[in-house]
Amino acid sequence: MKNFVQPGVVVTVTAPYALNPGDGCLVGVLFGVAAGAYSSGAPAELQLEGVFDLTALATDTASGTTLVAAYWDNTNKRVTTTSSGNTKIGVITAAKANGDATARVRLNGSF
Questions:
Q1: pTM of the entire structure?
Q2: DSSP 3-state of 78
């Protein structure tokens, strides 16, 4: 196809803040995980699909048997189960107990 550009699993964006490898990043409505370390304002590659362990609100819980929607709290740069004021990024796919500081999230690259 003449109009095909790339598969879109990884895209390059302008980093809105400094990123370390594996950090979650929201640019507009596009969420991804940083592939490397990037300075604020630098071109940054974000992985848009896959399953990642991401920083999460420690008091949120998920049973692991019922997939729970995952949202990105861009103010605190972490995953939460709270939808209000946050951006939906995928689903929590593994049990997360109260006190766990990470959540296993399957990203939904379509939003």
A1: 0.90
A2: strand
